[in-house]
UniProtKB/TrEMBL annotation:
Domain annotation Nodulin-like: ranges: 11-258
Gene name, Swiss-Prot/TrEMBL: LOC104244484
Keywords on record: Membrane, Transmembrane, Transmembrane helix
Pfam hit, one: Nodulin-like
Membrane topology term: Multi-pass membrane protein
SUPFAM superfamilies per record: MFS general substrate transporter
Predominant place of localization: membrane
Signal peptide start and end residues: none
Phylogenetic placement of the source organism: Eukaryota, Viridiplantae, Streptophyta, Embryophyta, Tracheophyta
Source species, domain of life: Eukaryota
Cellular localization per UniProt: Membrane
Organism from which the protein derives: Nicotiana sylvestris
Record-level GO cellular component terms: membrane
Protein name from the UniProt record: Uncharacterized protein LOC104244484
Transmembrane portions of the chain: 12-34, 76-97, 109-130, 142-166, 172-194, 206-228, 240-262, 349-367, 373-396, 417-435, 441-460, 472-499, 519-540
Family designation: Belongs to the major facilitator superfamily. Phosphate:H(+) symporter (TC 2.A.1.9) family.
């Protein structure tokens, strides 16, 4: 596959295309929109619906296979797998809900939802890994932007569901079965690996600010239109216009490559600031910059075929070492490229996993039970509460990238510092929830949304900085397992048990009052206190790594020392 020249338009075209794929990858957030139809049309009990919801979480977050595949196949292959999973998974669900096929077994629908939502893991891995490698000097910013759009995807699908599909669950499932594959098939051509820039570029900073501003405007627009739709009666023409404006906002990142096409002289002038790489041929740029940015530089590069591939047997390597033909490879240090089996034995790997698991697991517990929490505390219509959480979740994801990127460059403060800060704030938030003080519900929900989003926006670039980009796909997807495991333990077992026990005392189908979740909130406050303590330890441990990587005020890839 041809590697494109540094500074060319394709990386920005790929980022603009990735926005659409990330929206499609958020298809798992549509479950609340069609789950009532599953219950009513197919006659499911609440318990059966809850178990179906577990399938939704499992499919979305188990991404080990795409993590492995992204190092062996180009991005379009990974996206094509996601296309097939979405088509067949949501296709089966549509057949059931539309009653085109009758009496489909429960286990078939459960597996269909796992398959359907697993498409998001393949799509998200393809675009995130590719763009992190295309913009390695701004990986925090890129992670914040892309994960931010995933956070907005639920609101985008809600807008389509309410304003275009007339609240029809069967039409939504048909849209997911056909619309997501069409989007990915159109965009997969533009999402490709490109040789990243070798130095800082002032225009790149401006482009990122524009993309962040566009996503922020989209978030505000979606929140506003959601409130309008829930409070006013809008006719179909206005609804279509509002949906069309949303599409324009989604297309706004394309303005960057368009500008670079119309005004190439401006880009070339700014590109000269980082040296003479613009005058190199494609092959020269590819060979020099790919080596320096995507893999650690080592004197082992001249050792012939022994290190060119991963297929050399250990016996052959040991014989070659014994004959002096090659030097024994040392284990990577933090900041260099780790294989998964090398990373998984490191204390920092598990510290990061546990901190992420505790932060995301406690946050997702509130998210999964937010409607019941609102009803228990006297809020009958929880639509605005859910929209507020989604909006602030987006702000947390986007802001984590911006803020952590600023402080890691200016003060070499590890990104995990912000996980510690937000988990300390989450302790206060859960105590506010437990107290059930009047007027605190919306403020606590907004703050929790921000803190919850920060966990995503910080974990992704941190994993890439500590363990490298070469095997980032599988490492990042393993980290993401903290989400469904946290949901199972804290939401499914803890919150569900406490809620049912209190509802049993009240002898009603629903639980009302602060006691429905008080014990859950107190336990979650303790969980976040432990998470904040571990994140402090992790931050202290990895501070030297960040002082090395960002000593010059910008990212530089760690190099092997055995020259």
């Amino acid at each position: 596959m041809a590697v494109l020249k540094e500074g060319s338009r394709p990386p920005w075209v790929g980022l603009a295309a990735a926005v659409w794929v990330q929206i499609a990858a958020g298809n798992a957030y549509t479950f609340p929109l069609y789950s009532p139809a599953l219950k009513s049309v197919l006659g499911f009990s609440q318990q059966q619906l809850t178990i179906i919801g577990v399938a939704n979480d499992i499919g979305e977050n188990v991404g080990i296979l795409p993590g492995i595949a992204c190092n062996k196949f180009p991005p379009w292959v990974i996206l094509l797998v996601g296309v097939c999973l979405s088509f067949f998974g949501y296709g089966v669900l549509w057949l059931a809900v539309s009653q085109t096929l009758l009496s489909l077994p429960y286990w078939v629908l459960w597996l269909a939802l796992v398959v359907a939502t697993n498409s998001s893991a393949w799509m998200g891995t393809a675009v995130l890994v590719t763009n992190m490698r295309n913009f390695p000097l701004s990986r925090g910013t890129v992670a914040g932007i892309l994960k931010g759009y995933v956070g907005l995807s639920g609101a985008v699908f809600t807008e389509i569901f309410a304003m275009v599909l007339n609240d029809s669950a069967s039409e939504l499932l048909l849209f997911l079965a056909l619309g997501i594959p069409i989007i990915c098939l159109v965009m997969m051509y533009f999402i490709r690996a490109c040789t990243p820039a070798s130095g800082e570029d002032s225009s790149e900073h401006v482009h990122f600010i524009f993309t962040q501003a566009a996503s922020l405007l989209l978030a505000v627009y979606l929140l506003t239109t959601t409130i309008l739709k829930s409070t006013l009666s809008l006719n179909s023409s206005i609804s279509y216009i509002l949906a069309g404006v949303m599409v324009i906002f989604l297309m706004s990142p394309l303005a960057i490559p368009v500008k670079m096409t119309l005004f190439p002289s401006l880009h070339k002038r700014s590109g000269k600031l980082d040296g003479s790489s613009n005058n190199l041929t494609e092959e020269e740029v590819s060979s020099s910059q790919t080596a320096s940015l995507l893999t650690p530089i080592s004197s082992e590069a001249d050792l012939g075929s022994f290190h060119e591939g991963e297929d050399v047997s250990e016996v052959d390597m040991l014989l070659a070492e014994g004959e002096g033909a090659v030097k024994k490879k040392r284990k990577p240090r933090r900041g260099e490229d780790f294989k998964f089996r090398e990373a998984v034995v490191k204390a920092d790997f598990w510290l990061l996993w546990v901190v992420y698991f505790l932060g995301v697991g406690s946050g997702v517990t509130v998210l999964n039970n937010l409607a019941q929490i609102g009803v228990a505390l006297g809020v009958n219509d929880t639509t605005i509460l859910l929209s507020l959480f989604s909006f602030c979740n987006f702000l947390g994801r986007l802001g984590a990238g911006v803020v952590s990127e600023h402080f890691v460059r200016s003060k070499t403060i590890p990104r995990t510092f912000w996980m510690m800060v937000t988990q300390i704030i989450m302790i206060v938030i859960f105590l506010l929830y437990a107290s059930a003080l009047s007027g605190t519900l919306y403020a606590a929900t907004a703050l929790l949304g921000i803190c919850f989003g920060v966990q995503f926006g910080v974990m992704i670039p941190t994993a890439s900085e500590l363990f490298g980009l070469k095997h980032f796909g599988i490492i990042f997807n393993f980290m993401q397992l903290g989400n469904p495991i946290g949901a199972l333990l804290f939401s499914g077992l803890l919150a569900g048990y406490v809620y049912d026990a209190e509802a049993g005392k009240q002898q009603g189908p629903h639980c009302l009052g602060a006691n429905c979740f008080r014990l859950t909130f107190l336990v979650l406050a303790g969980v976040c206190a432990f998470g904040a303590f571990l994140s402090m330890i992790l931050t202290i441990r990895i501070r030297p790594v960040y002082q090395m990587l960002y000593a010059a005020g910008s990212f530089r890839v760690a190099q092997d020392s055995d020259h």
